[in-house]
Amino acid sequence: MGVMTSPETPLDEKAMVAAAEAALHDIATIRKEVAKVIFGQEQVVENTLIAVLSGGHALLVGVPGLAKTKLVNTLGTVLGLNANRIQFTPDLMPSDILGSEVMDQDESGRRSFRFVKGPVFAQLLMADEINRASPRTQSALLQSMQEYHITVAGQRYDLPAPFHVLATQNPLEQEGTYPLPEAQLDRFLLQVDVLYPDLAAERQILLETTGLSEAKAHGVIDASRLQEIQTLIRQMPVSDKVVDAILSLVRSARPGHGNTMTDRHVAWGPGPRAGQALMLCARARALYEGRLAPSLDDVHALAEPVLEHRMALTFAARAEGMSVRDVIAGLVKQARG
């Protein structure tokens, strides 16, 4: 394992640049490896990886069949994480996620309870079609995402580190779905919209995936290296200009803060967590794109995935056919001046 530094001991500039360059190299290799298996969808891969590199969870939203599950499996392999998958269904119970206590009997006939860990005990948890489970089951996942431990029968169990939830949600088939509560949506660092592939990518998918053999991705780093990169990202300096841009963007998305467009269209806006997410993700995006410091461009590019699930439109704006994305695009345009 390389040099693991805690956020309390800042690296000197030379060591910081050396560590960042090593991370750039690893991230470039990760991108190459993922691209062997996932065609097109560069934006989706980028945003999902940014969420993981920033130490957070991501919500992938898109119609079925766009390789969301395949992407998560591939990331597990490439990042060297121990991964589990849960298919969310209406009858899924909290214990199906967390685990449960079973009765054991020893040779002398004495009985005792033993905790059997559920699939949440993984470094990368894929929560497939998360909006199909009941609110009670969704909230069981919520505690683990927020607190990195679970409590069963009064006993605390810590989750492995790192711990990332990548959840998928289908927007179309609203039958049999329970919308995620705002508090749960806010736990996701980013919302990643997965759209249909473009023509060239779809042609490649047809040719590459219908033959006898399919390309496979290989491991590039392991969990401890991922944690080193996550620590490094938290140490990257952010200029005052970028911090101010983050604050003004997040605050402009809140009604009652002097932005006429927002006051007219937005029912409630993003809380401080949105600013924290932009601050972390802007650094991760800079590294992902081969730079050592985040720029205003990173903030503007991440506005949609960070803000989209943290704000809601008024009834009137929805009736006019507006979307949250339209509002965010307008705010970014104003910020760019």
Automatic annotation (TrEMBL):
InterPro entries cross-referenced by the UniProt entry: AAA+_ATPase, ATPase_AAA-3, CbbQ/NirQ/NorQ/GpvN, ChlI/MoxR_AAA_lid, P-loop_NTPase
Residues annotated as signal peptide: none
Q: Where is the AAA+ ATPase domain?
A: 54-198
Question: Where does the source fall among the domains of life?
Answer: Bacteria
SUPFAM superfamilies membership: P-loop containing nucleoside triphosphate hydrolases
Q: Which SMART domains match?
A: AAA
Q: Which PANTHER family does UniProt cross-reference here?
A: MAGNESIUM-CHELATASE SUBUNIT CHLD, MOXR FAMILY PROTEIN
Q: Give the protein name, as stated in the record.
A: MoxR family ATPase
Organismal lineage? Bacteria, Pseudomonadati, Pseudomonadota, Alphaproteobacteria, Hyphomicrobiales
